[in-house]
Backbone:
């Protein structure tokens, strides 16, 4: 019998389920379920991490000074506006904790990243999903979902799992349509992969508006998901708030050192970007040639949908891929039961996933 009272909202949370890593009985698997970097971490980040083993007794720098300056130099941002976190997940929850509570609403896009409704509920706020158009965030719908109770609006740009994005003029229109007391959080976890001229990660909006925050992660292009590292770029007032609520040593020393090396390893970052620029369109084209629909993703993954293929649905495709040692992500939890999200992996992994889906569909690849 439990006597303790749990805070409102918490028991309504459907716990986040991460991408699977194992298949029973399979020794060799291809894991394309969590959008981890196709080429792993930068060798310089790995070496820096390994060199820290004699320092494990030391508390880290609570201010993440070296890391914030490296981020500032590489991304062209003011280090004073950067707050680091144990993954951008931590920053998303700290923002909810700081700006929303019971009775408040947190708006996000229909197929937006699941940590937004989870973090909103965790602080007793009500998540409100705005409908999308063609699996893409819709500015008018997002603005229409804002009420007097709205405190935060999350926009993943590009979005996970759809891979679609809003161009800069639409993001500006969204910000201009918001009251100044609503915080716009632009989650740019996949920004480094985007190759479109009309895209903005939101840096200039942060620099010109107190109520805009941009979040970034080291888990994707930098391939450092295992060490949990993310950062937020914020106005002075938001920086002051986040520094009050974060733990004093919220980013561990190994993450800070490896992250600093990774962000400075421009050659490796460029290699990962070029790999994605080749294999993302290749994979999408191959899937479309198989008669499937794939979104025009600009991230390091594709969303592929099986609508209208009577006996060949996403669930059966997922099972067939697993039987063949390939783990992707079935998107039922995102309200997309007919879709799978497939991370862009290595060349051989992409060949394997396309060939296996072709066999599932009884077709030949080109
Ligand atoms: C859109 C989006 N935001 C945030 C995150 C969380 O990243 P992190 O590993 O930095 O917590 C993810 C991870 O998949 C994501 O897809």
Residues:
């Amino acid at each position: 019998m439990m006597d303790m009272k749990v805070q409102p909202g918490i028991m309504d949370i459907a716990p986040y389920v991460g991408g699977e890593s194992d298949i029973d009985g399979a020794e060799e698997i291809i894991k394309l379920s969590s959008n981890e970097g196709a080429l792993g971490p930068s060798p310089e980040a790995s070496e820096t991490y390994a060199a820290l083993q004699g320092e494990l007794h030391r508390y880290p720098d609570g201010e993440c000074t070296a890391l914030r300056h490296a981020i500032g130099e590489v991304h062209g941002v003011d280090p004073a506006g950067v707050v680091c976190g144990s993954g951008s997940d931590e920053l998303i929850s700290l923002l909810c904790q700081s700006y929303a509570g019971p009775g408040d609403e947190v708006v996000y896009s229909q197929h937006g990243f699941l940590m937004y409704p989870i973090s909103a509920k965790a602080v007793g706020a009500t998540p409100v999903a705005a409908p999308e158009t063609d699996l893409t965030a819709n500015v008018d719908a997002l603005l229409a979902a804002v009420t007097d109770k709205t405190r935060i609006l999350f926009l993943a740009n590009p979005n996970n799992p759809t891979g679609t994005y809003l161009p800069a003029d639409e993001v500006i229109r969204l910000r201009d349509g918001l009251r100044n007391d609503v915080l716009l959080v632009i989650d740019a976890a996949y920004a480094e992969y985007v190759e479109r001229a009309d895209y903005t990660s939101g840096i200039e909006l942060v620099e010109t508006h107190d109520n805009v925050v941009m979040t970034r992660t080291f888990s994707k292009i930098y391939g450092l998901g295992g060490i949990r590292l993310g950062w937020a770029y914020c106005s002075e007032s938001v920086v002051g708030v986040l520094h009050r609520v974060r733990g004093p040593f919220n980013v561990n020393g190994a993450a800070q050192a490896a992250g600093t090396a990774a962000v400075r390893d421009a050659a490796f970052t460029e290699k990962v970007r070029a790999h994605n620029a080749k294999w993302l369109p290749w994979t999408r084209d191959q899937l479309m040639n198989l008669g499937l629909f794939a979104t025009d993703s600009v991230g390091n993954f594709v969303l592929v949908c099986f609508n209208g293929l009577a006996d060949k649905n996403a669930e059966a495709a997922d099972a067939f891929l697993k039987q063949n040692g390939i783990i992707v992500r079935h998107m039922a939890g995102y309200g997309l039961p007919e879709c799978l999200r497939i991370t862009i992996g290595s060349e051989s992994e992409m060949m394997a996933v396309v060939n296996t889906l072709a066999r599932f569909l009884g077709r030949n690849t080109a």
Observations:
- The chain has a mean pLDDT of 95.
- The CA atoms of residues 146 and 180 lie 12 Å apart.
- Residues 35, 87-89, 113, 156, 160, 187, 189, 217, 219, 225, 230 surround pyridoxal-5'-phosphate (CB under 6 Å).
- The two ends are 61 Å apart (CA to CA).
